[in-house]
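Bench notes, bay 3.
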Amino acid sequence: MLKQLLYYFEGLDESILNLNKCIVEDDFEFEKYTLEQFEKKFKRRFKNIIQENHPLGFVGAVSRLGCFNKEIFQNGYILFLNDNTKNPLEDAIDIRLENLIQNLKFFKHGHIKLVSAFEFPSEESDFIGPVIFSSPSKEIKNRYTLSNEDILKIKFFKQQYKPHQYIELAFHTFLESYNIEDEKLKFVVLMVCLESIFNKSKDEPIRHIISRHAALTITRDKQMFAEKVKRLKFLYDLRSSLVHGKEENKEDNKEHKKYKQILDNIHEYVLELEELVRSVLRQLIVDKQLFGSATPETKEELFNRLNESSINGIILN
């Protein structure tokens, strides 16, 4: 067996295998092993850390190390990303791998999280690692899937992103939000992405400005713009309720019941906000343009262009 460097991501489904034709030139390849195939191929390489006839079984014992999510037992298989370069396994993520992860996150919604990696240097050696990049999630609600149509589009997003300074916080915060399991916290963090781009001063009406500017960044269609503004204002109000502890305020029973009902559906609002943030960042970072011109290099330039913008000759306020 030639050297193998295997990365395990949780949340992926088998459709990720269709991405291989787009990433082969980068020396990446997704591989699928049934649990039986994984044990047969790799069991002897773990002999120094996992005892023979372990009560949890071989795969269970490896998972106990924090290497896998429990999803592998539900799915009956493990998906690895094989890095075919000769680069050694490091604690830090390889820049090529980081770019791939960023592209997948910016492309569409879906759970994707790098958990662990193993290096098998040669046929005779034991493995190196595992390196644990993050703990397995307690729950996976939306697996990352790629349709045939997605595959045709995603090849155009293979690039390294270099956001302007005023977008950097939103860029990194959005990527980091994938590692947050608490949905209330994730919702607030996603709103921070928009606040960091579209907020200049505490003296300005932040709710209106964020909603207006984010909507205008996403669309030039007047009706869609109005709908986006309305939704963003609703989501910002929800953010304010979460941050200011409205959940604990039971003086207005009717309002409290309404708020509790919203919280029962917080997952769908997280997905909605995530997609809005993704749309803004894709416009400014991936597409690198706003209203047909290059993305503004400073926040001041961004605000000037947004404040002066119009749709069908009508200034949008």
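Next record in the batch:
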Amino acid sequence: MADIQVASHKMKLKFSHGILIVFGLLLCAGFFLRVWKLSESSLWVDEGYTLNAAQETVIHGYPILPSGKVYTSGFLTTYLSALTLKIVSFDPYFPLAPRLPAVFFGTGLIVLVFFFTETLFKNRYLALAVAFITAFSQWEIAWSRQVRGYAALSFFLILLLFFLWRFLETAKKKYAILAIFSLVFASLSHNLGLAFIPSTIIFLFSYRFFDSPLLLKRRAVYISTIVISTIAVSALIYYYFSIQGSNFISNYLDFFADELIIFLLGTLSVFIPDIFQKKYAKQIIFISLFLFLPFLYILIYAPTTQFRYIFPLFPLMIILTSFSLWRLTHIVFSDIHHAKRDTMAVVFIILFALPGLSFLPRGFYELENGSPQPNFKDAFGFIQKTGNKNDIIISPYAHMTKLFLGRGDYWLKTSINRIPNNLKGSVINGRDYYVGAPVIEDLENLKRITNENHGFVLANFTMKVRLPDVYTFLNADYRFRMVYKSFAPSRSDFIELYRF
């Protein structure tokens, strides 16, 4: 009997070491995919916001913009970007250095989801499957290559949940303190971190409930309450914003159906009674608390279609989807040895997630629809090569003009959506909020300025949709001649330059 126990222990160690070796290879592959040809793709609109603020931080010590306003979105991301600009001279045509922090946070997330999942469910096979999907997820890789705070936000949110769970297991206050610090850093990475404050408060005031016998007896009631409340409040939000003329909730649902249908179904499958096992009730309720309530906050926080706001929730969807398939495998193949079942589960999970995975390195990753990635690099390169000293640049993205050319010139007033109120705060004393560029308010203003000057007007797909009268005018007036057009390797996005 003793010999059998020793042999069994050695076999477990062998499997354990094997999983860790595979995990190490996953980590290397994940890092490689995130860093490969990192500077090849052009900087895009949102990266420009961060880098513009970072440049001002290098100059002034804090992100005060030329308009006199302080850039308050993602302080941590802004300061990390400023640090890279201090260490390496910034070249907008080769933005390797400022993108590196996102690479490290994205790679670190692979480590965190592995240990967080293992801590939750006490199964390294399941943890390995979650880490595998995170490492090769095209969406995860794409956002781990941008000068934005989403990769850092995801990292600190999983760290928050890891420390909260450790606090639940040990009742040691140090984990609660570390969780609060993680939440602070998440909120400093991106303002969306604030979406997790209500869930954190609820957990810290009711964590003893997770060990209550009532949880096990009425687990279906509690999880149903969370889900039904989410649906009910979403319906109210939908009704309110429908009155305002915005159908963004329908857009989010369409996005889930088109882009994340696999993980949506996998997440919802966790509520099937046989999968929602008594043994894992508190784990599922814990993750649901930090998945559904923040989703409601996102709907309220962003009354516009910004699919990237769902991105911080994606690791939790990966975990729940993987768990659902893991449990399903164990139910269907209950007569097979548990180690073989775990191996089969890992294979099924990876096959299930395969459509959303990317294994070959590339220099460009398409973000979700609504995150335009036109080729600013080549367009501004063309202006530098062919333009004259006295040319002016008119663009819906004055901050990108400043980033590439060192001056903002003129901002063509454009809303990021079709809600007029969305322009509030974008204009400060007749100048653009980000770089202090003079504002062209309307078509008549554009006609007057182009009559008095020479230069370029930059247009793209977003401008074509948001300012159709301006786009039609550029193509109809004989004074404007299209001299450049570039299609980005993304969804129907392009850049056009009109000489006048």
